[in-house]
Amino acid sequence: MKHLYLTDDHEIFRSSLRKFLEKEAYPYYEQWEEERMIPRSFWTKMGQQGYLCPDIDEQYGGSEVDWGFSVIINEELERVGSSLVGIGLHNDIVVPYLTAFGTDEQKKRWLPKCATGEIITAIAMTEPGTGSDLANIKTTAVLKDDHYVLNGQKTFITNGIQSDLVVVACKTDPKANPKHKGVSLLVVERDAPGFSRGRKLNKVGLHAQDTAELIFEDCLVPKENLLGEEGKGFLYLMDKLQQERLLVAIAAQTASEVMLKQTMDYVKSREAFGKPVSKFQNTQFKIAEMATEVEMGRAFLDQLIAEHIGGKDIVTKVSMAKWKLTEIARNIAAECMQLHGGYGYMEEYEIARRFRDIPVASIYAGTNEIMKTIIAKNLGL
Known about the structure:
By secondary structure, the chain is of the alpha+beta class.
């Protein structure tokens, strides 16, 4: 199916990226899963080839290309494995905060190294007691002389261990009314006094993706590291969540396509009772159902991506896509594992890893329950 937003240049780019990943990612991915980390060397190789932050200005090391190139990067990384999600977070979630709200000085200081992979970024919103309710975060930052003094703890932070630059949501005015007007964004650098990493979290899936706790104890952050204006952090977060949730939908759709193809190949080759498993009506019906959901999901997603690239406000439909496509992916993972029989439960078959990796997509970037709340609100209910 021809994507609505892609040209021949995009397809040439996809071909070159696939060749790169076939050499630099696919052969090592299982090793990375066992080691529980994507090596920094892979990040720098991505940067050398122009696969990091391709849409930023050339003066900062980017290529100033349209967002369709980022979509391709995220799709192809997901085909390798879901643990590469941290690269998409760096390219298309964290760095856009810097390009949209950073000063010229901040951009010159950070963006070139973000594009080369010398700087790995993270965003710290979630706290041990606060997830979707961002207006009630407890991390505080008090301005004293030329520094903010940052105190608090964050958890479930993607790229938490390797990050060199962390955009931290904090309260600069804990008494603000309404509460969200007290939220600001501070950029904390790796060597900031008082900044430390807690546990590297042991997750059900996404084993190669480093996820960690971050701790700020009287952490000193130069006032020049305030991103945008004080008190507007909540609005900045809301402004960028559309793209973040679209990324999750893209990954879920891609995973569904990969799992369906792998399972079709398997049932054609696996025999039972003297014939391929694909010849049984139950198998055919299950595959037909999944193939239909995948086709419908792709059509809806491609339309959304085209509208997003066109600058349209599609928050409601993105919330629909994030919810529905992650749910479809979770169901497809279960169905495909079942069609693999006992082999589906074996680690050497990729479906076992996909089965572990998929469920979290229903939770992060706003739970699917929050997505339904947003949809209902925007429908006027």
